[in-house]
Amino acid sequence: MTATARPAAGKIPATVITGFLGAGKTTLVRHVLQNANGRRIAIIVNEFGSLGIDGELLRSCGIADCSEEDIVELANGCICCTVADEFLPTMQALLDRPQPPEHVLIETSGLALPKPLIKAFDWPTIRSRMTVDGVITVVDGPAVAAGRFADDPEKVARQRAEDPSLDHDNPLAEVFEDQLMAADLVLLNKADLLHEGELDMLRRAIAESLPRAVKVVATREGRIDPAVLLGIGAAAEDDLDARPSHHDGEDGHEHDDFDTFVVEIGEIDQPERLVARLKTAAETHDILRIKGFVAVAGKPLRLAVQGVGNRFHHTFDRPWAPGEARTGRLVVIAETGFDRAAIEAAIRG
Ligand SMILES: Nc1nc2c(ncn2[C@@H]2O[C@H](COP(=O)(O)OP(=O)(O)OP(=O)(O)O)[C@@H](O)[C@H]2O)c(=O)[nH]1
Protein backbone atom coordinates (compact mmCIF):
# COMPACT_ATOMS: atom_id res chain seq x y z
CA MET A 1 0.00 0.00 0.00
CA THR A 2 1.24 3.50 -0.65
CA ALA A 3 2.22 5.27 2.53
CA THR A 4 -0.73 7.23 3.80
CA ALA A 5 -0.38 10.68 5.32
CA ARG A 6 0.85 10.32 8.91
CA PRO A 7 -1.18 12.48 11.25
CA ALA A 8 0.29 15.26 13.32
CA ALA A 9 3.40 14.88 15.45
CA GLY A 10 3.96 11.20 14.76
CA LYS A 11 0.80 10.10 16.54
CA ILE A 12 -0.41 6.61 15.72
CA PRO A 13 -3.63 6.86 13.71
CA ALA A 14 -6.72 4.90 14.73
CA THR A 15 -9.68 4.32 12.44
CA VAL A 16 -13.04 3.68 14.07
CA ILE A 17 -15.29 1.36 12.06
CA THR A 18 -18.87 1.63 13.14
CA GLY A 19 -22.22 0.64 11.65
CA PHE A 20 -25.33 -1.25 12.72
CA LEU A 21 -25.45 -5.01 13.37
CA GLY A 22 -24.50 -6.97 10.29
CA ALA A 23 -23.74 -3.98 8.06
CA GLY A 24 -20.40 -5.48 6.97
CA LYS A 25 -17.80 -4.13 9.43
CA THR A 26 -15.88 -7.40 9.89
CA THR A 27 -15.97 -7.97 6.13
CA LEU A 28 -14.44 -4.51 5.65
CA VAL A 29 -11.75 -5.12 8.27
CA ARG A 30 -10.86 -8.38 6.54
CA HIS A 31 -10.56 -6.56 3.22
CA VAL A 32 -8.25 -3.94 4.74
CA LEU A 33 -6.05 -6.66 6.29
CA GLN A 34 -5.89 -8.54 3.00
CA ASN A 35 -4.65 -5.39 1.31
CA ALA A 36 -2.37 -4.07 4.03
CA ASN A 37 0.81 -4.78 2.04
CA GLY A 38 2.96 -5.36 5.09
CA ARG A 39 1.68 -2.39 7.07
CA ARG A 40 1.55 -3.29 10.79
CA ILE A 41 -2.14 -2.99 11.63
CA ALA A 42 -3.64 -3.91 15.00
CA ILE A 43 -7.35 -4.65 15.27
CA ILE A 44 -9.57 -4.11 18.26
CA VAL A 45 -12.87 -5.94 17.90
CA ASN A 46 -15.78 -5.23 20.20
CA GLU A 47 -18.93 -7.32 20.43
CA PHE A 48 -22.25 -6.90 22.13
CA GLY A 49 -22.58 -10.60 22.90
CA SER A 50 -20.31 -12.63 25.16
CA LEU A 51 -18.90 -14.76 22.35
CA GLY A 52 -16.11 -13.25 20.27
CA ILE A 53 -17.36 -14.33 16.85
CA ASP A 54 -15.81 -11.50 14.82
CA GLY A 55 -12.34 -12.06 16.27
CA GLU A 56 -12.71 -15.75 15.42
CA LEU A 57 -13.78 -14.95 11.86
CA LEU A 58 -10.81 -12.65 11.36
CA ARG A 59 -8.35 -15.15 12.84
CA SER A 60 -9.62 -17.96 10.65
CA CYS A 61 -9.35 -16.00 7.42
CA GLY A 62 -5.74 -17.03 6.85
CA ILE A 63 -4.20 -13.64 6.08
CA ALA A 64 -0.44 -14.10 6.09
CA ASP A 65 0.43 -10.72 7.62
CA CYS A 66 -2.10 -10.93 10.39
CA SER A 67 -0.83 -12.53 13.58
CA GLU A 68 -3.03 -13.59 16.51
CA GLU A 69 -1.63 -10.94 18.82
CA ASP A 70 -2.68 -8.20 16.41
CA ILE A 71 -6.35 -9.01 17.00
CA VAL A 72 -7.56 -7.91 20.41
CA GLU A 73 -11.11 -8.76 21.44
CA LEU A 74 -13.23 -6.70 23.75
CA ALA A 75 -16.21 -8.98 24.05
CA ASN A 76 -19.05 -8.98 26.51
CA GLY A 77 -20.26 -5.46 26.42
CA CYS A 78 -20.32 -2.37 24.40
CA ILE A 79 -17.11 -0.45 23.85
CA CYS A 80 -18.79 2.89 24.46
CA CYS A 81 -19.66 1.83 28.01
CA THR A 82 -16.39 0.12 28.95
CA VAL A 83 -14.01 2.81 27.78
CA ALA A 84 -12.21 3.37 31.08
CA ASP A 85 -12.10 -0.25 32.25
CA GLU A 86 -11.22 -2.04 29.09
CA PHE A 87 -10.57 0.15 26.11
CA LEU A 88 -7.98 2.52 27.56
CA PRO A 89 -5.83 -0.23 29.14
CA THR A 90 -5.97 -2.13 25.85
CA MET A 91 -4.77 0.88 23.90
CA GLN A 92 -2.06 1.54 26.45
CA ALA A 93 -0.82 -2.03 26.12
CA LEU A 94 -0.71 -1.69 22.33
CA LEU A 95 1.26 1.54 22.56
CA ASP A 96 3.71 0.02 25.03
CA ARG A 97 4.62 -2.90 22.78
CA PRO A 98 8.28 -2.96 21.68
CA GLN A 99 6.95 -2.55 18.14
CA PRO A 100 3.71 -0.58 18.36
CA PRO A 101 1.29 -0.87 15.45
CA GLU A 102 1.47 1.63 12.60
CA HIS A 103 -2.30 1.88 12.46
CA VAL A 104 -5.11 0.67 14.72
CA LEU A 105 -8.52 -0.37 13.41
CA ILE A 106 -11.30 -0.41 15.97
CA GLU A 107 -14.42 -2.35 14.99
CA THR A 108 -17.18 -1.34 17.36
CA SER A 109 -20.14 -3.54 18.14
CA GLY A 110 -23.16 -2.92 15.93
CA LEU A 111 -24.98 -1.38 18.89
CA ALA A 112 -22.19 0.92 20.07
CA LEU A 113 -22.42 4.67 19.95
CA PRO A 114 -19.18 5.93 18.45
CA LYS A 115 -19.00 9.30 20.20
CA PRO A 116 -17.95 8.12 23.70
CA LEU A 117 -15.22 6.10 22.04
CA ILE A 118 -13.93 9.09 20.07
CA LYS A 119 -14.02 11.10 23.31
CA ALA A 120 -11.71 8.54 24.93
CA PHE A 121 -8.97 9.67 22.58
CA ASP A 122 -9.00 12.96 24.44
CA TRP A 123 -7.65 11.27 27.58
CA PRO A 124 -4.17 12.65 28.24
CA THR A 125 -2.33 9.32 28.13
CA ILE A 126 -3.83 8.45 24.75
CA ARG A 127 -4.08 11.93 23.26
CA SER A 128 -0.35 12.50 23.29
CA ARG A 129 0.31 9.32 21.30
CA MET A 130 -2.75 8.59 19.18
CA THR A 131 -5.36 10.31 17.08
CA VAL A 132 -8.64 9.26 15.50
CA ASP A 133 -7.69 9.33 11.85
CA GLY A 134 -11.29 8.84 10.77
CA VAL A 135 -14.67 7.35 11.59
CA ILE A 136 -15.97 5.02 8.89
CA THR A 137 -19.66 4.19 9.10
CA VAL A 138 -20.73 1.07 7.26
CA VAL A 139 -24.38 1.10 6.23
CA ASP A 140 -26.46 -1.95 5.31
CA GLY A 141 -27.95 -0.54 2.09
CA PRO A 142 -30.81 -3.05 1.66
CA ALA A 143 -31.79 -2.70 5.34
CA VAL A 144 -32.10 1.08 4.97
CA ALA A 145 -33.99 0.66 1.69
CA ALA A 146 -36.41 -1.67 3.48
CA GLY A 147 -37.11 1.01 6.09
CA ARG A 148 -35.40 -0.94 8.90
CA PHE A 149 -34.31 2.24 10.70
CA ALA A 150 -37.22 4.46 9.81
CA ASP A 151 -39.68 5.66 12.38
CA ASP A 152 -43.19 4.33 12.32
CA PRO A 153 -45.10 7.65 12.27
CA GLU A 154 -48.22 6.19 13.91
CA LYS A 155 -46.23 4.63 16.73
CA VAL A 156 -44.32 7.88 17.35
CA ALA A 157 -47.58 9.86 17.46
CA ARG A 158 -49.08 7.36 19.91
CA GLN A 159 -46.05 7.44 22.19
CA ARG A 160 -45.77 11.22 22.06
CA ALA A 161 -49.41 11.47 23.10
CA GLU A 162 -48.51 9.47 26.21
CA ASP A 163 -45.21 11.25 26.87
CA PRO A 164 -44.76 14.62 25.14
CA SER A 165 -41.10 14.86 26.25
CA LEU A 166 -40.21 11.82 24.19
CA ASP A 167 -37.24 12.34 21.88
CA HIS A 168 -37.31 9.14 19.91
CA ASP A 169 -39.34 5.98 19.93
CA ASN A 170 -37.10 3.83 17.89
CA PRO A 171 -33.92 2.40 19.43
CA LEU A 172 -32.75 1.09 16.06
CA ALA A 173 -33.10 4.52 14.46
CA GLU A 174 -31.31 6.16 17.35
CA VAL A 175 -28.23 3.94 17.21
CA PHE A 176 -28.17 4.08 13.41
CA GLU A 177 -28.35 7.89 13.37
CA ASP A 178 -25.69 8.30 16.06
CA GLN A 179 -23.36 6.11 14.02
CA LEU A 180 -24.04 8.12 10.85
CA MET A 181 -23.61 11.49 12.52
CA ALA A 182 -20.12 10.55 13.72
CA ALA A 183 -18.89 9.62 10.23
CA ASP A 184 -16.02 11.03 8.23
CA LEU A 185 -16.83 8.60 5.45
CA VAL A 186 -19.94 6.50 4.87
CA LEU A 187 -19.78 3.20 3.03
CA LEU A 188 -23.14 2.28 1.54
CA ASN A 189 -22.48 -1.44 1.63
CA LYS A 190 -24.21 -4.45 0.05
CA ALA A 191 -24.52 -2.46 -3.17
CA ASP A 192 -24.92 -5.79 -4.99
CA LEU A 193 -28.37 -6.12 -3.43
CA LEU A 194 -29.61 -2.73 -4.66
CA HIS A 195 -30.57 -1.34 -8.06
CA GLU A 196 -28.71 1.68 -9.43
CA GLY A 197 -31.74 3.90 -8.82
CA GLU A 198 -32.02 2.76 -5.19
CA LEU A 199 -28.30 3.37 -4.68
CA ASP A 200 -28.54 6.93 -5.99
CA MET A 201 -31.58 7.64 -3.88
CA LEU A 202 -29.99 6.25 -0.71
CA ARG A 203 -26.68 8.01 -1.34
CA ARG A 204 -28.49 11.31 -1.62
CA ALA A 205 -30.80 10.69 1.34
CA ILE A 206 -27.91 9.71 3.63
CA ALA A 207 -25.73 12.63 2.55
CA GLU A 208 -28.61 15.06 3.13
CA SER A 209 -29.32 13.65 6.59
CA LEU A 210 -25.75 14.24 7.79
CA PRO A 211 -24.81 17.32 9.79
CA ARG A 212 -21.85 18.14 7.54
CA ALA A 213 -20.51 17.28 4.09
CA VAL A 214 -19.39 13.67 4.14
CA LYS A 215 -18.74 11.38 1.18
CA VAL A 216 -21.06 8.41 0.75
CA VAL A 217 -19.44 5.64 -1.29
CA ALA A 218 -21.24 2.52 -2.50
CA THR A 219 -19.33 -0.70 -1.74
CA ARG A 220 -19.71 -4.41 -2.14
CA GLU A 221 -18.27 -6.57 0.66
CA GLY A 222 -16.29 -3.59 1.89
CA ARG A 223 -14.13 -3.60 -1.21
CA ILE A 224 -12.56 -0.18 -1.23
CA ASP A 225 -8.92 0.82 -1.57
CA PRO A 226 -7.50 1.04 1.99
CA ALA A 227 -5.71 4.22 0.88
CA VAL A 228 -9.16 5.85 0.82
CA LEU A 229 -10.00 4.63 4.34
CA LEU A 230 -6.71 5.14 6.11
CA GLY A 231 -4.97 8.49 6.27
CA ILE A 232 -8.06 10.71 6.35
CA GLY A 233 -6.36 12.82 9.05
CA ALA A 234 -9.66 13.89 10.64
CA ALA A 235 -8.40 14.17 14.26
CA ALA A 236 -11.99 13.43 15.27
CA GLU A 237 -11.18 13.86 18.97
CA ASP A 238 -10.76 17.60 18.28
CA ASP A 239 -13.97 17.79 16.33
CA LEU A 240 -16.59 16.30 18.66
CA ASP A 241 -19.07 19.15 18.38
CA ALA A 242 -19.45 18.50 14.66
CA ARG A 243 -20.70 15.00 15.52
CA PRO A 244 -24.03 15.38 17.29
CA SER A 245 -25.51 12.44 19.20
CA HIS A 246 -28.93 11.61 20.61
CA HIS A 247 -27.07 11.08 23.88
CA ASP A 248 -25.24 14.41 24.09
CA GLY A 249 -25.33 15.67 27.65
CA GLU A 250 -25.91 12.22 29.11
CA ASP A 251 -23.40 10.53 31.33
CA GLY A 252 -23.72 7.12 29.80
CA HIS A 253 -26.38 5.20 28.02
CA GLU A 254 -28.34 2.06 28.54
CA HIS A 255 -28.40 -0.95 26.33
CA ASP A 256 -31.61 -2.32 27.69
CA ASP A 257 -33.34 -1.78 24.35
CA PHE A 258 -31.43 -4.78 23.02
CA ASP A 259 -30.51 -8.15 24.43
CA THR A 260 -28.47 -11.14 23.41
CA PHE A 261 -28.10 -14.80 24.31
CA VAL A 262 -26.32 -17.88 23.02
CA VAL A 263 -28.05 -21.00 21.73
CA GLU A 264 -26.00 -24.19 21.98
CA ILE A 265 -26.82 -26.89 19.47
CA GLY A 266 -25.45 -30.35 18.88
CA GLU A 267 -24.15 -31.64 15.56
CA ILE A 268 -26.53 -31.03 12.70
CA ASP A 269 -27.07 -33.19 9.61
CA GLN A 270 -27.91 -30.64 6.98
CA PRO A 271 -26.91 -26.96 6.96
CA GLU A 272 -29.82 -26.06 4.68
CA ARG A 273 -32.35 -27.36 7.22
CA LEU A 274 -30.73 -25.34 10.00
CA VAL A 275 -30.75 -22.21 7.84
CA ALA A 276 -34.42 -22.74 7.00
CA ARG A 277 -35.21 -22.92 10.74
CA LEU A 278 -33.08 -19.84 11.44
CA LYS A 279 -34.89 -17.88 8.74
CA THR A 280 -38.26 -18.80 10.15
CA ALA A 281 -37.12 -17.88 13.67
CA ALA A 282 -35.67 -14.56 12.48
CA GLU A 283 -38.88 -13.63 10.67
CA THR A 284 -41.25 -14.82 13.39
CA HIS A 285 -39.39 -13.14 16.25
CA ASP A 286 -37.96 -10.10 14.46
CA ILE A 287 -34.37 -11.07 15.28
CA LEU A 288 -31.72 -8.54 14.27
CA ARG A 289 -28.66 -10.73 14.12
CA ILE A 290 -27.64 -14.40 14.39
CA LYS A 291 -24.06 -15.55 14.04
CA GLY A 292 -21.84 -18.35 15.19
CA PHE A 293 -20.34 -21.72 14.42
CA VAL A 294 -21.93 -25.15 14.09
CA ALA A 295 -20.66 -28.74 13.72
CA VAL A 296 -22.00 -30.77 10.80
CA ALA A 297 -22.04 -34.57 11.20
CA GLY A 298 -19.20 -36.21 9.29
CA LYS A 299 -17.51 -32.91 8.41
CA PRO A 300 -14.10 -32.03 9.81
CA LEU A 301 -14.65 -28.32 9.07
CA ARG A 302 -16.57 -25.88 11.24
CA LEU A 303 -19.60 -24.23 9.66
CA ALA A 304 -19.73 -20.44 10.10
CA VAL A 305 -23.32 -19.18 10.03
CA GLN A 306 -24.28 -15.54 9.53
CA GLY A 307 -27.71 -13.96 9.54
CA VAL A 308 -28.77 -10.35 9.24
CA GLY A 309 -32.54 -9.97 9.45
CA ASN A 310 -33.78 -12.91 7.38
CA ARG A 311 -30.78 -13.07 5.03
CA PHE A 312 -28.48 -15.99 5.86
CA HIS A 313 -25.11 -17.14 4.65
CA HIS A 314 -23.09 -20.19 5.68
CA THR A 315 -19.62 -21.43 4.84
CA PHE A 316 -17.08 -23.93 6.19
CA ASP A 317 -14.28 -21.83 7.64
CA ARG A 318 -11.67 -23.97 9.40
CA PRO A 319 -11.17 -27.50 10.77
CA TRP A 320 -12.31 -28.11 14.33
CA ALA A 321 -9.12 -28.11 16.37
CA PRO A 322 -7.95 -31.35 18.05
CA GLY A 323 -9.69 -31.59 21.42
CA GLU A 324 -12.10 -28.75 20.60
CA ALA A 325 -15.67 -29.69 21.51
CA ARG A 326 -17.83 -29.89 18.40
CA THR A 327 -20.52 -27.80 20.03
CA GLY A 328 -22.51 -25.37 17.93
CA ARG A 329 -22.95 -21.89 19.39
CA LEU A 330 -25.11 -19.21 17.84
CA VAL A 331 -25.39 -15.67 19.17
CA VAL A 332 -28.85 -14.14 18.85
CA ILE A 333 -29.45 -10.37 19.16
CA ALA A 334 -32.88 -8.74 19.15
CA GLU A 335 -34.81 -5.89 20.66
CA THR A 336 -35.74 -6.69 24.26
CA GLY A 337 -39.05 -8.30 24.94
CA PHE A 338 -38.50 -11.37 22.80
CA ASP A 339 -39.50 -14.91 23.76
CA ARG A 340 -36.16 -16.62 24.32
CA ALA A 341 -37.59 -20.11 24.89
CA ALA A 342 -39.63 -19.92 21.68
CA ILE A 343 -36.60 -18.73 19.69
CA GLU A 344 -34.42 -21.52 21.09
CA ALA A 345 -37.08 -24.10 20.25
CA ALA A 346 -37.49 -22.73 16.73
CA ILE A 347 -33.72 -22.84 16.12
CA ARG A 348 -33.24 -26.34 17.53
CA GLY A 349 -36.27 -27.65 15.60
N1 LIG B 1 -24.64 -9.47 -0.28
C1 LIG B 1 -23.73 -8.89 0.48
N2 LIG B 1 -23.46 -9.40 1.71
C2 LIG B 1 -22.52 -8.81 2.45
C3 LIG B 1 -21.81 -7.65 2.01
N3 LIG B 1 -20.94 -7.28 2.99
C4 LIG B 1 -21.11 -8.16 4.01
N4 LIG B 1 -22.05 -9.08 3.68
C5 LIG B 1 -22.55 -10.19 4.51
O1 LIG B 1 -23.29 -9.65 5.59
C6 LIG B 1 -23.13 -10.47 6.75
C7 LIG B 1 -22.64 -9.61 7.91
O2 LIG B 1 -21.33 -9.14 7.61
P1 LIG B 1 -20.29 -8.74 8.75
O3 LIG B 1 -19.09 -8.21 8.08
O4 LIG B 1 -20.12 -9.88 9.70
O5 LIG B 1 -21.11 -7.59 9.48
P2 LIG B 1 -20.74 -6.82 10.83
O6 LIG B 1 -21.14 -5.42 10.62
O7 LIG B 1 -19.32 -7.07 11.20
O8 LIG B 1 -21.71 -7.54 11.88
P3 LIG B 1 -21.76 -7.34 13.49
O9 LIG B 1 -20.33 -7.35 13.97
O10 LIG B 1 -22.54 -8.53 13.98
O11 LIG B 1 -22.45 -6.06 13.73
C8 LIG B 1 -22.17 -11.59 6.35
O12 LIG B 1 -22.91 -12.70 6.00
C9 LIG B 1 -21.44 -11.00 5.15
O13 LIG B 1 -20.97 -11.99 4.29
C10 LIG B 1 -22.11 -7.13 0.69
O14 LIG B 1 -21.57 -6.13 0.22
N5 LIG B 1 -23.07 -7.79 0.00
Sum this structure up briefly.
The protein is an alpha/beta fold and 349 residues long. The chain has helices at residues 25-34, 53-59, 83-95, 114-120, 124-127, 141-145, 153-162, 171-181, 196-209, 226-229, 271-285, 340-348; strands at 12-18, 41-46, 71-74, 103-107, 130-140, 185-189, 215-218, 258-265, 287-295, 301-308, 311-319, 328-335. It starts with 11 loop residues before the first strand and ends with a helix.
Task: Write up this protein.
This protein is α/β, with parallel strands linked by helices. Mean pLDDT is 87; it is low at 1-7. β2 (41-46), α2 and β3 (71-74) form a beta-alpha-beta unit. The protein has two domains: 12-242, Rossmann fold (3-Layer(aba) Sandwich), CATH 3.40.50; 258-348, Hypothetical Protein Yjia, Chain: A,domain 2 (2-Layer Sandwich), CATH 3.30.1220.10. It contains twelve helices and twelve strands. It has a seven-stranded parallel beta sheet with strand order 3-2-4-1-5-6-7, sandwiched between helices. The chain has helices spanning 25-34, 53-59, 83-95, 114-120, 124-127, 141-145, 153-162, 171-181, 196-209, 226-229, 271-285, 340-348, and strands at residues 12-18, 41-46, 71-74, 103-107, 130-140, 185-189, 215-218, 258-265, 287-295, 301-308, 311-319, 328-335. Guanosine-5'-triphosphate is lined by residues 19, 21-27, 54, 110, 189-190, 192-193, 220-221, 289, 291, 306, 308, 313. Belongs to the SIMIBI class G3E GTPase family. ZNG1 subfamily.
